[in-house]
Amino acid sequence: MLTVTSIGRSFGDLQVLDGVSFEVRPGRMTGFLGANGSGKTTTMRIVLGVLAAHSGTVTWRGSPVTGAVRQRFGYMPEERGLYPKMGVAEQIAWLGQLHGLDQATAKRNTERLLDQLELGHRGKDKLEELSLGNQQRAQIAAALVHDPVMLILDEPFSGLDPIAVETVLGVLRERAANGVPVLFSSHQLSVVERLCDDVVIISGGKIAASGARDELRARYGTTRFELVVASDAGWVRDVPGVRVVDVDGPRAVFELDGRPDADRAVLEAALRRGTVRSFTPVVPTLDEIFMEAI
Ligand SMILES: Nc1ncnc2c1ncn2[C@@H]1O[C@H](COP(=O)(O)OP(=O)(O)OP(=O)(O)O)[C@@H](O)[C@H]1O
């Protein structure tokens, strides 16, 4: 497990990270969400040791992260970083060797990864000859070639078409299933919603929410309900303790203002009036949680 505790960092007078704490658990895909400039890349750079924190600690399995441990991390930086004029397979295998693999293992891992990422037929091409989406797949292969114990990926899904998202996801999921903690940042909330087990939301350099995706959704979703009846549902507006979000004919979406049993009062009133087609809590999307948390 990777544990980030109370990280702080400034650039000049600008405090960019303030008391940032979260965990990336083994076998879990953790989505790191935040608006532009909220501090995701800075946090990732600190975890990787590319940048120093001004306060706080980063530990791996309970011990401070040393250079030798970082050597075994896999990182896909925001600025990417493969060589445009070098052959794809050649440079990925070479990166594997830089991370300590022998030549034969580096070559074998490279071939396997390129095949998995459906790039096997492009291995001999120069990176610059690949489309942007395929260059992105090559970057992912480069982050994975040395069988890292921890994966940190800055926007790994940006620029990928939906089929490529599935391909890359399959590769990352396989690593997670083998116990590797995976931390990845993304702006595509709908993608993260589908992909991640855990979520960390950062806003203005502070953690706004974190935890298991489903727990977060449940926590943020306990106060909103949808009622569908057989006739007009406008009367819901008059139930005490209820704030109506939307009424559209027989369908009403409302929130509770904290008064106990207001949801029950709505349901009982609806039953008294006639047929109730459905009455369900509304589970928020990650988009909605994100907008509320930041
Ligand atoms: N080397 C630097 N010098 C000065 N300011 C910096 C530096 N690196 C980052 N910042 C500032 O720190 C803040 C956080 O930047 P960071 O790149 O971590 O955000 P981010 O969440 O990754 O954003 P994005 O989603 O746009 O990539 C921004 O205000 C940025 O301008």
Automatic annotation (TrEMBL):
Swiss-Prot/TrEMBL GO biological process terms: response to antibiotic
Localization per record: Cell membrane
Keyword terms, alphabetized: Antibiotic resistance, ATP-binding, Nucleotide-binding, Transport
UniProt GO cellular component terms: plasma membrane
Pfam families, alphabetized: ABC_tran, DrrA1-3_C
Membrane-protein topology: Peripheral membrane protein
Signal peptide: none
Family matches, as InterPro entries: AAA+_ATPase, ABC_transporter-like_ATP-bd, ABC_transporter-like_CS, ABC_transporter_ATP-binding, DrrA1/2-like_C, P-loop_NTPase
Residue stretches making up the ABC transporter domain: 2-229
A molecular function GO annotation: ATP binding
The keyword Transport is assigned to this record: yes
Organism superkingdom: Bacteria
UniProt similarity note: Belongs to the ABC transporter superfamily.
UniProt-recorded name of the protein: ABC-2 type transport system ATP-binding protein
